[in-house]
Amino acid sequence: MASDHGSRAPRYRRAIIGLAVLIGVPAVVLALRLVPWARTGAPQHARVIDWVRNGPGGHGAWRVYGGNRCTGAPMRIPSDGFIGYGWNDEIHPGRHHSGFDIFSPDGQENVTPVFAAFDGLLTREADWRSAVIIRHPAFPADFAPLARRPPAGGVIWTYYAHMASADGATSFIAPAFPPGTYDRPVRAGEMLGHQGTWSGDPAKPVGLHLHFSIVEGVDAGGGYANETAPANTYDPAPFLGVVRDGDGVLVCGAWEPDGDAVGDAVRHAASATSTAAAPGASAPTAGSQPPP
To answer: Which of 27, 135, 204, 285 has its CA 20 to 30 Å from the CA of residue 70?
Structure first.
């Protein structure tokens, strides 16, 4: 009996060691996969959580001002808030971001305005409840990023998303742009809607923000590429005049004086006026006043 017990013990220990190896190898692989996320994503995640939970208090230097222009930039900042995630940031292990996520300073849906970044022709597909996309045929083709990699379709588009309630039942896109809108002229600074939390899945709302990307055209007839793939998009930073500060936060290098910008106290009234603009008319630029 003793010999039987003695012969079982080593086999038992070998079984335990084998099980540990089977469990441990995937754990090590997972840990190694999380290393890039921990290195590149953790600071952004921590800052976004801080902003969403506590608002902009104490982080005024992080803020960008919708409807305004950074010095020398061809495009206007598309919304107020904090650029929590930038282009090509690793937002999940192995998944890179295709644009900018600008988190609201207001903490409430349907309050923070979203603006056209540049003159163009707006499309809202018939089944889009939270997004619009603008084609920019007049954007200068010699702008450095485009000169290095010309878009296949000869033009670029800007894409604006998450403008709906968490359950998707209420769209926050301006009434001037109903579903099924195609090639509707808009001007830089025209109000397009308000930030929301619709993700495409009512069970998984996103944090209150605007997703903004610059998308490659795919043909001369007006098609646009799949914007979820970073390879089909351009880094918005040079288009908006945004740079990373010493802590890696995306901020405006300097603000360009703009007589059309309005202060916080009248921002929402000005935005409401812009929704009533006649089709094709130039709506007033509205946005928070950047610090001097």
So the answer is: 135
